[in-house]
Amino acid sequence: MSKKLWGGRFKESINDLVDRFNESLSFDRRLYAQDIRGSIAHSRMLAKQGIISDNDASRIIDGLTEAKREMDRKNHLDSDLEDVHSLIEKVLVAKVGAAGEKMHTARSRNDQVALDMRMYVRDAVTRVINLIKEMQRVLIDLAEKNIDLIMPGYTHLQPAQPVLVAHHLMAYYEMLKRDKQRFYEDLKRVNVLPLGSAALAGTTFDLDREMVADELGFDSISKNSMDAVSDRDFVIEYIFAGSVLMMHLSRLSEEMILWSTQEFGIINLPDAFCTGSSIMPQKKNPDILELIRGKTGRVYGHLISLLTVMKGLPLTYNKDMQEDKESLFDTVDTVEDCLSVITLLLKEVSFNGDTMKQACEKGYLMATDLADYMVVNGSTFRQAHDAVGKIVLYAIDNKKELHELKLEEMKQFSKHIKKDVFKWLEPASAIKRRNLLGGTGSRAVLECIKQAKMEINS
Q1: For residue 1, pLDDT beyond 90
Q2: Are both 157 and 301 inside the same structural domain?
Q3: The 3-state secondary structure of 428-453, one letter per residue
Q4: Is 108 a catalytic residue?
C-alpha cells in the first residue's frame, strides 16, 4: 500500500481490477503542467508563511521544475500510480527526499484537482477564443473577396430571395461572435482560485491565498470551501459553449456540403480537404465537413453526460466527478480540431458566380420585390401578395420566370403594375434596395465588414 497516498488506513492492498477501474492517470496526466505550476505556487506560499522552511521550498521548486522538463519530454508519464497528483509527488520525493513529502501540507487532492481543472479550462478558453478570431478573419476576407456575388437565399431549403454571398458568410461571423462572448463569460467564472479549500472545510494553517492567486493569475478567490471543491459549473459551461459553437460549425458544414453537390454547384471544395471512393473513381467526397457535422453529436453527448453526473451529487467531492475530465478533454480536442480544419478549408473555397447568377434567375426569387413594387404604386401589401401569388401560378403554368412574362400578362392581375416593373425584377436591383442596417445591400454589408474588422482587431 505504500505507493498509495492514502494507504496508511488500509490493511489489504487494493484489488487489481479495482485499481484499474479507479485510476485516472491514463487521462488526467495531461494536467501535469497545471499541477506542477500550482504546486510551485503553493510551496512558495508555504515557505512565505513559515509553514515549511525556505530551504525545503527551494528544493521542492527545483525538483518540480526538473520534473516538468522531464514530463515535457514524455518521461515519467507511464506509471501504475492512481493519478497525476500521485505521480508528481512520487517523482518529486525520488528527487529531493523527505522535503517532497511536505509539498502537500494544507492541501487536498480535492482543491488541488479543482485548481488544475480551472487552469486547464482557462488555457483552453484562451486557445478557442483565438481560433474563433482566426475563423472570423477568414470569413471577413472571404466575404470581402466575394462582395459582388449574388446567390439565392433559402427558407425551408426552398429558393426565397437573392442575397449577397458576403451577407451569408457574415451571418456566421455573427454566430461566432456570440460563441466568443460565451467563452469570455465562462472565463470570468473559471478564473477563481479554489486552492486553500483543502478537502472541504478549509485548513487550520494560516495560508496566504491572495499570494497564490496573484502568482497563478486568478482574478478572485473562492468564498466557500465546500462549493469550491464540488463545483464543476465552469467545465459544464465550457462544454455548453463548445456545443453551441459546434452547432454553428455543423450548420456551415451542412451548407457547404449541399453547395458543393452537382445539384447546387455553388462552391468548389479544395481537393486537399476531400477524399475519394474505393470503388467509384469519379467521387470527391466532403468527408471533413461530414466529420465536423458528426462530431457535433459527440460534444453534445459530453454535455449531457456531465450534467447527468452532477445532477444528484451531495456536497462535497464525490468520485463521480472524476468523469468530468474525459468529457472535457475530448470536447477541447474536438472543438479545437474542428475550428482549425474548417478555417483552413474556408481559405481555399471558391464560389461559382455564373452558377449562382443562373440560380437567382430561377425559382421566382423576385416575387417579394414584385409585391413591394406594387405597394409603392398604391396597392396594400395583402392585395399585392395575393396578386403576385396568382402571377407566379400563371408563370408556372406557362413555364416562364417572372422576368420572362410580358407586361400585358402581369397587368391583368393588378392595375398597380407599370412598364418600369422589369427594373424591379433584376436580382442586382433587389440587393441595392436593401441597404438598411442588417440588410443584404452592398453598402450595408460593407459597413458590417468594416465594423467586423474593427472588432476583430480590438
Answers
A1: no
A2: yes
A3: HHHHHCCCCCCCCCHHHHHHHHHHHH
A4: no
